[in-house]
Amino acid sequence: MRVKVKRWHGVAVWRWDVPNEEVCGICRVPFDGCCPTCKTPGDDCSLIWGECTHVFHMHCLLRWLQTEGSRGQCPMDRRTWGINFTKLFFLL
Amino acid sequence: MELDDTDLEEFDVELPLEDGTKLEDLNDEIEAFSKLCKQMHSLDLIKRTNDALEEFLCDEIELRVQNTCKGTFDKPMLRHSTKWLYSTLYPWLQIIFSSNSQLSHESIENRLVAWSKRLNYHFCMIFCDSRISELFDVIVDFPDSKIAIDDLIVCMRRLDKDYRYRLVESLHAAFRKRLLIPGAGTMDIINTYISTIKCLRLLDSSGVLLEKITGPFRNYLRTREDAARCLVSSWMDEKNNNNELIEELGRTEEPIDNQQDVRFNDDNWLPDPMDAGPDYKSSIYRSADITNLLVSLFDTTDLIIKEIQNQMASYLLTKTDYDTEKELTKLELFKLRFGESKMSTTEVMIKDISDSKRIDSFILGNDNPLRRNMSGSSSEVMMLHGTVISRLFWPTLKGEDFDVPEQISNEMVKYDEGFQIFKPRRKLQWLKSLGKVQIELELQDRTLEFEVAPIYATIIHNFQQQDKWNLVDLAKKIKIDPIILKGKMNFWSDRGILKELPNDEWLLLETAEEVDPSKRAFASNEENCDNIIQSLAEQKAEEFKMYWAYIENMLKNLGGMTLEKIHNILCSVAEPTTSSSNSSFDNNLEDLKSFLNQMVVEDKLEFQGGLYKAKIN
Questions:
Q1: CA angle B329-B332-B338, nearest 5°?
Q2: Based on the domain organization, do B585 and B487 belong to the same domain?
Q3: Taking CA atoms, what residue in A is nearest to B439?
Q4: Are the beta carbons of B86 and B129 closer than 8 angstroms?
Q5: Which of B30-45 are b and which e, b meaning 16 or more Cβ less than 10 Å from the residue's Cβ?
Q6: Scanning every residue of chain B, which has its alpha carbon at the shortest distance from the alpha carbon of A92?
Q7: What is the ipTM of this complex?
Q8: Lowest mean pLDDT: which of B59-73, B271-285, B539-553?
Q9: What region holds the Cullin family profile domain (chain B) (predicted)?
Q10: pLDDT tens for each residue of B484-493
């Protein structure tokens, strides 16, 4: 017998390349979900990686940085926030 | 007095003469009758027959309604019968009245009018009673029976309000006896409910009748667990058998939750009708919006939204052409109905499919750098297409993991690599049991094509290298539980491709064998039975499992508790889950009860005297 596969339509889920089951440190929503102001995950609500290796929903972090109390620091370790450009590069 | 009787007997024989009698005969009859009347008048007997006459005429009308109107819903029986009254019944009356030669033409006319008024009213009553008693059948036949409803409207307008109650009561009884019984299918009940709404909306624009009828329906449908599923599946129906229901879906100005009972700036506002009951919500019943009434069967729209998501998910996952046009139209209708925010999850699901189309054409197209490099060396065509979904926005998908054929798993890796170029910092995880495979089997004597679930394709693919497999070996090869595999093997043996041998061995049939036709028929739809999405009940049980450890410890430490107490404690301590797709702790008492009872059945709890107790091991 010969089996000829004409077309294989599979189903896959996508995940952000972050450790499993992690949630955004700001909104506590899983990274694969979206920040509280967004409705669609993925392209419309991407992540941002900091120099300090912390990851957040980009919208969450930008909103955090706009608040006065943030003083431009990472909310997790209070180091000055800097974007990890090697990771951001791919996003652009 | 003896004469009276004979007179009426004669009358009795004469009157039913209708079509079919020859005109001359009829003329003779009329002449004879008019002569008889004159003789009776000269004996002064006519006056004394009035009561008997009236009684007889009423009987005649009843007979007429009974014989011709009953059961005929597609002809304007009211008009037919009125015609009969005026062309057949009243002329005889006229003969009787004109036997009195002293009466002027005018007074005969007056008497005739007075009699006909009385008789018309009586006819109306009889007709109305008859229609009310068979209203259930009228509703079932609707819209073919619309004429019957129109007739009833005309009659009801002439009769007093009492008939409205009679209608409600008779309909209630009919529903209880014929529809709201375990033997009736949920879909049939819903369809009848829809027809009922339409009929009563015609009969009574205020909706009071509807509200009174709806009660038993609502209570009964609530006991049907599949009510929401049936309702949603009729909305989602691809074949559009329920076109009207879908049309109704779009006919709204405001989403359900925003509708207020009283609108203060409504110039056409009317107070609720006099006979409205306490449950009467004017906005719903007055507009008699079918979708609203159906949806209001359920306490919250959440159940329906979840069902929509589930059914939408199964529709979308069976798609291989990425065409979401139909689903988008449905989505727009649902949005109008339930509000945009509630449908956002479903929107993401549909968007996933259309995004998948772009992803797929990128990965398989020439823009993909990996592919460009590859095509130089080998010109192999990718067999694999993919649907990439956002996991948190889809219902929990069931499915076991297994090893797909090597060729495909290689392509899956390539697909993932391509995806990571298209969507940086993201990766794919294949749900191997989902999807669809088109395969062609070339056997010695036949070539067959199938469209099957991946697991079946994987099984048959393995028979390419060797045509005899032991179940356990094959299970090891594709890394799946042998018990699950065994069930799946039947798919191919039912189709006459594989044959089960003793000792759990399976043999490929290179040449077709005679198959028992009864077996074949039994096999036909087995694949469709595989439900890929967890049912709502399963999802609920899953939700409770989160709390199970807590409940168990609580019962161990604090002793037995009543259902209500457990529920109270859970409500006060359970923190709303934050993930966007799961709702907060909204589990009601009923669900908790069924979960706890399930635990009792599974022998993890004890139930004694109204208290749930932990099992002491």
A1: 140
A2: no
A3: A5
A4: no
A5: eeebbebbbebbeeee
A6: B424
A7: 0.89
A8: B271-285
A9: 251-493
A10: 888 888 888 8
Is B197 inside any structural domain? Answer: yes
Angstrom distance (rounded) from CA A74 to CA A61: 8
> Based on the domain organization, do B409 and B455 belong to the same domain?
no
**Among B208-222, B391-405, B527-541, whose mean pLDDT is lowest?**
B527-541
Amino acid at B133: S
Among A residues 33-72, those touching chain B with beta carbons less than 8 Å apart? 33-34, 39-43, 47
Confidence of residue B261 (pLDDT cuts 50, 70, 90): low
Q: Name the pLDDT band for B264 (thresholds 50, 70, 90).
A: low
Angle at B524 between CA B520 and CA B525, to 5 degrees: 155
Looking at residue B456, which CATH number applies to its domain? 1.10.10.10
pLDDT in tens, B392-421: 888 888 777 888 888 888 889 988 888 888
Q: So what's the pLDDT on residue B8?
A: 36
Q: At what angle do helices B454-462 and B482-494 cross, to 10 degrees?
A: 80
* Nearest residue, CB atoms, B386 vs list A6, A10, A30: A10
Q: Any residues with CB less than 8 A from the CB of B38 and at least 6 apart, and which?
A: B99, B101
Q: What residue type is B398 in one-letter code?
A: K
Task: Answer yes or no: is pLDDT of B253 > 60.
Answer: no
Q: Residue B577 has what DSSP assignment?
A: P
Nearest-CB residue to B431 (from A13, A33, A87): A13
Q: Which residues of chain B are within 8 Å of residue A7 when distances are taken between CB atoms? A: 320, 383, 385, 437-438
Q: Is B392 on the interface with A (CB under 8 A)?
A: yes
Check residues B579 and B93 and name the one with the higher pLDDT: B93
**Could you give the number of structural domains in chain A?**
1
Structure-block tokens of residue B408: 């495909």
Domain boundaries, position B501: 437-529
Q: Which value, to the nearest 10 degrees, does the dihedral of the CA atoms of residues B404, B405, B408, B414 take?
A: 80
Q: Are residues B167 and B285 in the same domain?
A: yes
SS3 B27: helix
Cβ of B320 and A15 within 8 Å? no
| Residues B548 and B590 grouped into a single domain | yes
Tokens, residue B186: 């949920």
Domain containing A58 — which CATH number?
3.30.40.10
From chain A, pick out residues whose CB is under 8 angstroms from the CB of B460: 3
pLDDT digits (tens, 9 = 90+) for B163-182: 888 888 888 888 888 888 88
Q: Which of B72, B103, B127 is the last residue of a domain?
A: B127
- Chain A: nearest CA to B262, how far in angstroms? 33
State the Cα–Cα distance between residues B161 and B282, nearest whole angstrom.
Answer: 20
Enumerate long-range contacts of A63-71, CB under 8 Å, 24 or more apart: A63/A26, A64/A26
Task: Strands of chain A (E only): list them.
Answer: 2-16, 47-49, 55-57
Written as six digits, the tokens of B138 are: 């009228």
Residue B40 and residue B96: Cα distance in Å, rounded? 10
State whether B25 and B120 are in the same domain: yes
